[in-house]
Amino acid sequence: MELGTVFQVNGQSETSDKEHIVNAMESEDNSPDFSAPLTYSVSDESAEAPNPNETNTEKAEEKKHKTSNCETMMHLIKGNMGTGILAMPEAFSNAGILVGSLGIPIMGLICIHCMHILVACSRRLSKKIGCQSLSYSRVALYAFMYGPEPLPKFARIARKTINVFLLLTQFGFCCVYFLFVATNIQKLVCGWADRDPIGIYGYLTIILPFMVFFNFIKSLRTLAVVSTIANILQSLGICIIFYNLFHQLPSTSSRPLSMPIATLPLYFGTAMYAFEGIGIVLPIENEMRTPKAFGGWTGVLNTGMVIVACIYTAMGFFGFLKFGSSVEGSITLSLPVEPLYDVVRIMFSTAIFLSYALQFYVPVQFIWPYIQKKGELSKRLSSTQEKILEYALRAALVTITFVLAAAIPKLDLFISLVGALASSSLALVIPPMLEIIVYMDSTMSKMRWIIIIIKNCLITLFGLAGFVTGTYVSIDSIRVAFQSPSNHTNSC
After folding, report:
1. Are 199 and 404 in contact (CB under 8 A)?
2. Closest C-alpha to 9, from 237, 286, 238, 229
């Protein structure tokens, strides 16, 4: 869920933008209480529930600020294409050129299907409780709340679980971003000086104060402008990378079709890290002028995600074909030490540095209001003291991501760990479970119900298998890397 690439500057107010960016992850204390479902019938294809108190003028004004189908697709594509695309060649090195090429589309189809499941559950529950839209965590909350006994007892636990995984994912992205910038700067210095004078920890330490002060920016409108610059740099960088990949390609027979099964969990983790855009699906769909156009065989979701899957497959295939098993955790590190590709490394380092703030914005907007409310800071502290405390929190959280990045200074393994540990749960494990709970009271035929249960159980088992094996193999690979100091420091 690389939210940093999604949000653009538009005519909306900053307050509205903030609501947009954090509605993927909200504190349960901020949610309205729908104590019972409404009495009217529930349609499986329900659209947003109307608000009887809303005037026609307000409806027209609100619709004016909604996104078109094209804008929504661009948000979806950009929200799914972050640093994960640069790790695709390394993912292929853990699967082989054939298995990797087949695995990305297959996992992409499963992830897209789970996104459709989440959207359908959100629409059904929204109609049932009479609200306009729901976030991921609220879908889990109300699915359990209106599910059969004893599920209602675990409704708030379900919501907290989603929020925890969303926080883990966002902090994981921040750690990867920290490490990405440091390793690319290290590569630049190694190319220019033919030696590495300070090591990866030195570059991480140099970046830390800049990252802390940059994340003192609290205006989402300012961050959105910065994000636009980052998007331009990333787009240009990807074009130059493909330019390099298409030159002097070796024969496909020179690359293994498959790799040992022991490395497949690393492939799974990296792919899930790249595909984990399920957290932005509901916020994007909720902001559309025509939400019904989001689904369907040729809808925005399918079209956008097929484009993403094709680009991922192309980057992985040609990157692995060009560099083989020696490809680095980010393909930018495998590019030749030449001025053009040094510029690419600078562009991506700058873009990812700028994108860090928006990735960081989401957990801060979740944690800080929670601390404010639980600690009753408005009663106990002056406004100046509150601001100082907020800046201290921001500095502490950035430092935590720095410590985690320094603790695991292997970019490829960190990406795989984040994907397997957090992303697979949100993308593959939870949506099928929610569908079974939400549609348990539907009037569908027995045969269709059996098919849904079997299908969802298979997807959940696949996600759990990837979660367990991917996490284990990633941690074990990190342990092995630490046994060789020359490896875990990524020196020249």
Report:
1. no
2. 229
